[in-house]
Design goal:
InterPro entries: DNA_glycosylase, Endonuclease-III-like_CS2, HhH-GPD_domain, HhH_base_excis_C, HhH_motif, MIG/MutY. By secondary structure, the protein is mainly alpha-helical. It has helices at residues 7-10, 22-29, 33-50, 55-58, 62-72, 77-90, 94-99, 102-109, 116-131, 140-143, 151-162, 171-181, 190-200, 206-223, 244-258, 263-270, 274-286, and strands at residues 260-262, 291-293, 296-298. The chain folds into three domains: 7-50 and 166-230, Endonuclease Iii, domain 2; 55-162, Endonuclease III, domain 1, CATH 1.10.340.30; 244-298, Arc Repressor Mutant, subunit A (Orthogonal Bundle), CATH 1.10.10. Helices cover 60% and strands 3% of the residues.
């Protein structure tokens, strides 16, 4: 029987293990070998009983990891879970994704937002299929050269695909370290967090350690709020309704539905000012999401 998620557990107190809460303990010890060991125990204890299950965790391959990590950029895991299996069924390996019409890729991406990631993912699949014979390189320096893959995502792919240690920070990991080690501080830079990530990294089981950190971070956000707001890297997202992001998605949906659209009629179809629509269409064309052939717009 799993212990309940109580306030004391969030605070870092595990009554069966310790008699002193994390808050009191850390106030007394600060950062030292003992406090880092206790931190790891707390995180792993929670993971033992409250591990989240996702398709990309239960069946692991380099391809499935790459797809899931790109999908998880700026998108919550629950939304990714609703799309992931259907996407993998349609494109089970690098070559099938690379060769697919982009309109089909985008159609299966629906619901994840930030649609340029779908193009980046397909371009990355083409690179792996063409340059690496369909085998994802196990080198972070090569992974970061793939379209849409930055240093943190390259590190996470390296860890989850190959179970090899590499320090990186993402939003849930940042939340955990801010909660435990910077409880009363604001504007905390990742440069201060990274040494702690490196010192606590499980060199033998890095994949499970990062899963544990992320799961704890999700729990913290649900119960005590998002400590990530105290990071100097935190940016409040602008409202989606009425935004350029929303209109970009509407433009792509029209093209998905109609296949081909006259550029001159797109603004009226969307009931939006033509200057705004033209500006966003130009950006979508520059990003390779939309193709303009004379007066006609399409996805491929």
């Amino acid at each position: 029987m799993a212990p309940p998620l109580t306030g004391s557990l969030v605070d870092g107190e595990l009554p069966s293990f310790f008699t002193e809460s994390w808050t009191d303990f850390y106030r007394r010890t600060a950062i030292c070998r003992e406090s880092l060991a206790r931190f790891r125990t707390i995180i792993l204890h929670h993971y033992l009983y409250h591990r989240r299950s996702f398709s990309w965790r239960e069946e692991i391959s380099p391809y499935r990891v790459l797809v899931s990590e790109v999908m998880l950029q700026q998108t919550q895991a629950g939304r990714v879970a609703s799309v992931f299996d259907r996407f993998i069924d349609a494109f089970p390996e690098f070559r099938s994704l690379a060769d697919a019409p982009f309109a089909r890729v985008l159609g299966l991406w629906k619901g994840l937002g930030y649609n340029r990631r779908a193009r980046y993912l397909q371009e990355a699949a083409a690179r792996v299929a063409g340059e690496y014979d369909g085998i994802l390189p196990d080198d972070p320096d090569l992974l970061v050269s793939l379209p849409g893959i930055g240093p943190a995502t390259a590190a996470s792919i390296y860890v989850f695909a190959f179970n090899r240690p590499r320090a990186f920070i993402e939003t849930n990991i940042r939340t955990v370290f801010l909660h435990f080690f910077f409880p009363d501080e604001t504007e905390v830079n990742d440069r201060r967090i990274m040494p702690l990530v490196e010192r606590t990294l499980d060199l033998e089981h890095p994949r499970d350690w990062y899963y544990a950190l992320m799961d704890y971070g999700v729990m913290l956000k649900r119960i005590v709020g998002n400590a990530g707001r105290r990071s100097s890297h935190y940016q409040r997202q602008s409202p989606f309704a009425g935004s350029d992001r929303q209109l970009r998605g509407r433009i792509l949906q029209v093209l998905l539905d109609r296949r081909i659209v006259e550029a001159a009629e797109l603004a009226s179809l969307l009931d939006e000012p033509s200057t705004r629509v033209d500006r966003l269409v130009a950006a979508l064309c520059d990003e390779g999401l939309v193709v303009r052939d004379g007066a006609v717009l399409a996805l491929d």
